[in-house]
Amino acid sequence: xxxxxxxxxxxxxxxxxxxxxxxxxxxxxxxxxxxxxxxxxxxxxxxxxxxxxxxxxxxxxxxxxxxxxxxxxxxxxxxxxxxxxxxxxxxxxxxxxxxxxxxxxxxxxxxxxxxxxxxxxxxxxxxxxxxxxxxxxxxxxxxxxxxxxxxxxxxxxxxxxxxxxxxxxxxxxxxxxxxxxxxxxxxxxxxxxxxxxxxxxxxxxxxxxxxxxxxxxxxxxxxxxxxxxxxxxxxxxxxxxxxxxxxxxxxxxxxxxxxxxxxxxxxxxxxxxxxxxxxxxxxxxxxxxxxxxxxxxxxx
Amino acid sequence: xxxxxxxxxxxxxxxxxxxxxxxxxxxxxxxxxxxxxxxxxxxxxxxxxxxxxxxxxxxxxxxxxxxxxxxxxxxxxxxxxxxxxxxxxxxxxxxxxxxxxxxxxxxxxxxxxxxxxxxxxxxxxxxxxxxxxxxxxxxxxxxxxxxxxxxxxxxxxxxxxxx
Lengths: 300, 163
Hints:
- The structure holds two protein chains of two kinds.
- By secondary structure, chain A is an alpha+beta fold.
- Chain A has helices spanning 23-33, 46-51, 87-92, 94-99, 101-108, 113-118, 121-127, 133-140, 158-161, 236-242, 249-262, 273-293, and strands at residues 16-18, 37-40, 59-62, 72-74, 78-82, 144-149, 152-157, 162-164, 167-168, 175-182, 189-195, 205-214, 217-226, 233-234, 297-298.
- In chain B, β3 and β4 form a beta hairpin.
């Protein structure tokens, strides 16, 4: 049926709506309705799909009333970000801006004020877009996903959480409950760069870098990129190459070449694969230089 | 499903379907057609309203979700026949041509000035990034926000010196 495929004025089918007030209730509903159910958080992706009939869940489980999913907590080891925390709350958080400036930078680049007021960090990650800005920053920050299911909770590195476009490790009866982000080592500088056709766009390519120098040589380095592979990528081989080296022009060139060889971008509506390969080299150099300028220096 | 919410300062009770969007509740059932349908997918900002004071997109919000909350639309700005200063500024700077994007921009401007009473031009443009205008080229819209901010500051200073 082609009718109503491009109507975005209404949601052209009926569904049941639930608003559980506990995680147990939500998991029970998810188990009961299985593939006929979808989790509703911010709705900025799901409702768009529903309007276009790309998804037609019979049951919508709104998880925004569940208390523990809304919490943003910090302790001496790091942050625990509940999955329904809105992007705007993260953007406004002074603690995140000061201790995780990389995440702050990434989230500030996402969507618009209106979208950030509605969208949640968990919803964004579960969408598993290869270009997700928050995901790229969180990969460089070595974040972990916290997942709840009928048999209990589990944690996994965010790097393993993404399987491909729109595919995560979540089983159909599981909910992402939060993201754990450890505090970066002291005195790391960081940089997030996002290239888009307009100021309000998905990334053509994005990159997140954390870096620290000790005695002029790199002693800590994490690099993640988005929109260059089916999922957001940690570039471990480039990180290993840079470790212990000084950031000379030759080293930068070699690292950029390694990035080009490690990524596998596609040609799509936003850019060609060739452009993405070229611009990735530029972004790597820019991001590394900026991270150093921002004080990624350990005074021994 | 019965919901209850405060709309432009007045308590409303309505019966809504789960699949009903806030935008359509406001326009079709409650007769408030100031908020516009532009794109329906969250990129144009024409459907912007304030929910508990924060700007959101009513085309991507289920009507159910405003239960127990406060909604403000463009219709709620003018008080007792007098236009809101932001509305006046938009008129004076020529920020309105066809007017379709205007309610969305004005609601955003109200939210911006509440959070940041003296925004720079860059901050204004960044904040309004989620609202599109096909007529004006944005220059006069930015001027309107600046003008509204200046006037608000001036009237605050007047009020202080009158004390």
